[in-house]
Amino acid sequence: MFSLRLLSTKFNLPIRLTRSISFPSKPTTLSPTNQLFPSPMLFTSPNRLISPTTLGSPPPFLTQEDLRRSTSDLYADFKNLSLEELARPEMHDGPWGFARSRLDYTYHRNPSPERRALQDEIVSLVLAESHKEECRFCHPSSRSPTPSSNSSTGRESSGKDTSSCTNSSDCEEDSTLICKSPNKQADPLEPGCCNGTSTKLGRSTKPVALFTSGGMGAGKGHVLRTFLEDGRIRLEDDFVWIDPDKLSQLLPERPLYLLSNPDDASTLLHAEASLLQELLTTVARQQHRSVVIDGSLSCSDWFRGVMTEFRQSGYLVEVVFVFCRDEDVMWHRAEKRRIKTGRRVSRAQIHNSRLKSPVSVQTLSKPSSDGKAFIDRLRLVDNSTDLPVQPPVIVYDSTEDPGWKEGLGGDVPVEKIALGEKPKL
């Protein structure tokens, strides 16, 4: 093997060109198809590009033509397995073979073995990430064996005294802790004795699948961190936080895409980030861990299926929809994010996302054709300013809506509320 790097000076090649090629033992006639320094097409073939297998490894040399294609396309497996073959766990190497067999390959490209190794490292990294510092009111996972564990479910029973609560309904849906004082409003950092979601006390605690939604620049991440900090969102301390934007930031090729085409970089990385999101969601559900899925819920049809799978697996499904009525504020937030992360969005994208994001949530809040709900709890959050004196405000909570039926959902005017109308309960 002879490194092309050694020839970079003589042939004026980029110093980053580090792939190796084999020289034949017999003389070879250079033709358009086997010339020593071929056209870029040789380097853009999905079968030729070898993905880095670890996060610490640099990506291969990518031409401008490569950087106009998505990473999921660049590193697709050349075997072209059928959908039936891809649905078999044994066809996927690595620790998450079963989860990979459950992915939607009508949408995703099956990655090459090298790319799967890199993705497996990303999945392991996200699963191991701790959020205890961000979540002041998170409680220990009930999967750990304890004397009070429910042997039939592997989940811990709370078995806590509810006598200190003001009424039985106050604690009926607590997944975290019982109020410590007879007056549930005594502690401002403990907003209610049961500000979580789970089955009734005395039974096994259910994990929560919490979905965020909102337009670009609505401030979903800020609201999540604020609510985890002040206790308005309480989960088990080993919950998995799945953010497609952060997943794309872990891809080794991202700096090259941002440098080459900053306007389209997010789009070209999105397909692989979506695969990682779906893979992490499946693994977290297999492990019965609470999960936060940070996104837009823009594809309501697909998320109906995801939410149904969570409910069938014993989860409670919550949605926190964040909106901002001032597009200038959303634009300034997006610009601050661009400076920090390199991700660019246009004013038109912000405008469209602001108008479309509430439509999906309103659709998902309604029961299905068989009368079953997709969502157990829905909260709408007004985050229209960045002033410290005006923090995010919950303007609607389905637990306080008499029209919201348990197990059935309700007809919530999400679009009207997000665009300016006050909710009427």
Automatic annotation (TrEMBL):
Molecular function GO terms recorded: ATP binding; kinase activity
Pfam families assigned to the protein according to its UniProt record, in alphabetical order: Zeta_toxin
Location of the Zeta toxin domain: 203-365
Skewed-composition ranges (Low complexity): 140-156
Keyword ATP-binding: yes
Designated name of the protein: Zeta toxin family protein
Alphabetical UniProt keywords: ATP-binding, Nucleotide-binding
Record's keyword annotation contains Nucleotide-binding: yes
Gene3D superfamilies (UniProt xref): P-loop containing nucleotide triphosphate hydrolases
Span list, region Disordered: 136-170
Naturally occurring in which organism (per UniProt): Phaffia rhodozyma
UniProt feature, compositional bias: Polar residues: 160-169
Domain of life the protein comes from: Eukaryota
